[in-house]
Amino acid sequence: MSLRWHANAFFFELVCAKAASKKVITREEWEKKLNDVKIRKEDMNKLVMNFLVTEGYVEAAEKFQMESGTEPDIDLATITDRMAVKKAVQSGNVEDAIEKVNDLNPEILDTNPQLFFHLQQQRLIELIRNGKVEEALEFAQEELAPRGEENQSFLEDLERTVALLAFEDVSNCPIGELLDISQRLKTASEVNAAILTSQSHEKDPKLPSLLKMLIWAQKELDEKAAYPHINDLSKAVLEDPAV
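Structure tokens predicted for CTLH domain-containing protein (243 residues):
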């Protein structure tokens, strides 16, 4: 027999031995363990409210507040203002977004030069998108170039953006992703996070972090036991362990 055959056989034996050494937990045992964990309804409600507030679902947050009696940790009226800023960036109206941010809190952009540069970069991208070449070059030279001289990363981002003007067909150029909607969403998300931070609120909702922790915990436990998994997070249905 070949050496490869012996190696495969040895590997198979190792896998079987590892599988056999795992503790098998039945659905009944697992559900009992889960039922022993007590979670207060108030804590779950706060988790839901945190998600609605952070993601900007103001109407849903208002209804949830009325139905559950859960108080948000910020004024819900500020969510509408924050979402107006986010929507302006997502629609390419960066000048309007900057004005709205300053109306909310002028210190946000004054104390965050990186965010202000990214907004100005997005404004330059919109000029290029609309074919305003001369205006784009003038804006890059007057507004962005001085900031690029002070920060190397800003200069690199500026050079990449201005390079869009060198291509007639930007859809096939290596930096065409700057004109994708995903770039607007990235900038809008950065602005949203900055506004939340200025309001002493977490910039990311807690729920996705907890789901990531669940996935990590299951992977870690897989090394030691076979147990019912939650494979589809949207349904949270336990699936029997593969033994």
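The first strand starts at residue 23 and ends at 24.
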